[in-house]
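Re: weekly structure request thread

Next one in the queue (146 aa):
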Amino acid sequence: GINAEYMGKHPGSLKLVGALADKLAAAQAEYAAGGAGERVLFDGPVRELCPAAPNNVNTMALAALAANATLGLDRTVGRLVCDPALEAHVIEIVATGPGDPPFEVKTVRFNPAKPGAVTGDATYNAFLSSLLTATATRKGDGVHFC
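Done, posted below.
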């Protein structure tokens, strides 16, 4: 299943609510005072992260839904960080399987984005391509991930 998901963005690209918005404001104050580097805003179940970052974590939510048979939203761990040095939205997903040591696959998406952009530059074209492919190769009613 999916063990962990990491998402890193420029602080200006995050649209958060509640306690996460407060953590982001504290990080931005640290950056304004000369601080630098990555700040962890959340590290826990994706189900808890989704309502606090509804504009930013759709990739995490989709991966957790795809792993529903083994992990789902409650056992997929999401880690949301901000870093003013980032000029992209970075998403890492680690999936592990059985074995000792376990089989592991790690994928990293680096999507260039200007500070303040909620969606990276490549997202629109990727979404349109996926939509066109899905409509051309319909597999029946419902949602299909592949």
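The chain has a mean pLDDT of 84. The radius of gyration is 16 Å.
Next request, please.
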